Amino acid sequence: MKSAQITQWNDPTIDIYKKFYNFLNHVDPSKVQFLLNMVNDHFDNFKIEKNIVVISTDREAPRDEKLNELALAYPDVQFICLADVNFYNYPLPSNVTFFKYRHCHVLLKAFLESDDGKLITPVKSKNIRKKFSSLSYQNKQIRAFVTACLLTYAKDDSLISWHNKSWSEHHDYLIGTIKSNPRYADLAWDLLNNTYLADKYNRAGTVNQLLWPMNTIYQTSLINFSNETTNYGLYQVDDVSYMRPGPFLTEKTWNPLLAGNILFSTAAPYVYQYLIDDYHIPINYSFGLDFDYIPGDLDRFESISKKIQELVDIPLDDLIDQNIDNCELVQQTLINPDYTKQFDQFNQNQDLKILEKIAQII
User: Which of 42, 109, 118, 278 could form a disulfide bond with 340, CB atoms 3.0-4.6 angstroms apart?
Assistant: First the structure.
């Protein structure tokens, strides 16, 4: 599925984005081209028409091979990439400049201003009856792994959604590699041949709206596994190792935080650090989050498994008592009407830096 593309300044859609990307109102259309989410598309039939190109990736973290492909194909063009991620030690081409640009708060703001935003159940009013919950629709390696761990170690204390929907041969292959790894031979992989539909979700329905923390799964469980769209960390290409840009966060992370769950991040590494430092969310759970600070994927998976087994041994009531105040603080932080204002201001400051960079190029 192709992402949206803005390539012409006379495209009516550009007016919508000018309201969010304020710097677009102050650039010279004859010299600057704006692309939305193009980093993840193929460029065989796409023509770069200006000597400065601004790329925004508001839907998905930039993919290294695509950004390199574009920059190398147009070595005389200066690219400015905007994304709500860290670039770590990612080897950016010399004609690419990266700026952080906040996107996640836009969805949150729209939700809080809607009628649904008034329906959030206070954390301490929830009826928590299960320790764990995990939502998966399309099969991915991390989702298969988490589901197998819960089915093996905590089946009776988990609300599990596993639709067993094959996404692609590539993802089926990745799941196969983790299933065949001797580190995880004790997991009940055969149980993944079944489906588990605790969420009663279907593509045509509205049970799981994009941002919908009132979902029964969140309301009746304490710890939710995010099972994010992107979960890979450390990459190795020949003799070069680097961290892929991340963490890339979606509603899969925001929903449990809004609902007052303990977020068990199964996204790319360093999610908690990003949420605390960049989004100023006061996460302070009663158990260690060391698994999230392991860049290597297989090592992180093993640490996740050990953490699940550690939590299995702690009574649900004890975990609630130890964490309910922090869960409430996180929820109250996010639903505060003034919370998102800081990110609008952040983007306005970035607008000035982007315009300065464009002026330097021109």
Answer: 109
- What is the domain-level CATH number for residue 150? 3.40.50
The pTM of this model reads 0.92
- Quick: pLDDT tens for 39-91: 555 555 567 888 998 988 877 777 777 788 888 889 999 999 999 999 888 88
**pLDDT recorded at residue 2:** 40
Number of domains into which the chain is organized: 2
Q: Is residue 294 in some structural domain?
A: yes
Indicate whether 157 belongs to any domain.
yes
Same domain, 200 and 319: yes
Question: Is residue 251 in some structural domain?
Answer: yes
Q: How far is residue 273's CA from residue 36's CA, in Å, rounded to a whole number? A: 27
Q: Which long-range contacts (CB under 8 A, 24 or more apart) does 29-37 make?
A: 31/362, 32/358, 33/7, 34/6, 34/7, 34/9, 35/5, 35/6, 35/7, 36/3, 36/4, 36/5, 36/6, 37/3, 37/4, 37/5
Residue 45 CA, distance from chain mean position: 29
262/200 Cα distance (integer angstroms)? 22
Query: Distance between alpha carbon 252 and the CA centroid of its chain, in Å?
Result: 7
* Residues 96 and 118 occupy one common structural domain: no
> Are 46 and 179 found together in one domain?
no
Amino acid 208: pLDDT: 45
Query: Domain limits at 240?
Result: 109-335
> Contact, 255 vs 249, CB < 8 A?
no
* 300 found inside a domain: yes
Residue range 145-173: average pLDDT? 95
d(CA 245, CA 323): 31
Q: Which candidate, 102, 71, 101, 98, places its Cα nearest to that of 87? A: 98
Scored b (16 or more CB within 10 A) or e, 182-200 reads eebeebebebbeeebebbe
- Alpha-carbon gap, residue 220 to 289, rounded angstroms: 23
87 and 195 together in one domain? no
The most confident of 29-33, 100-104, 287-291, by mean pLDDT = 287-291
Largest CA distance in the chain: 64
Rounded-to-integer distance, Cα 55 and Cα 39, Å: 7
Nearest by Cα to 121 from 327, 339, 285: 327
Q: Is the peptide bond before 247 cis (omega within 30 degrees of 0)?
A: yes
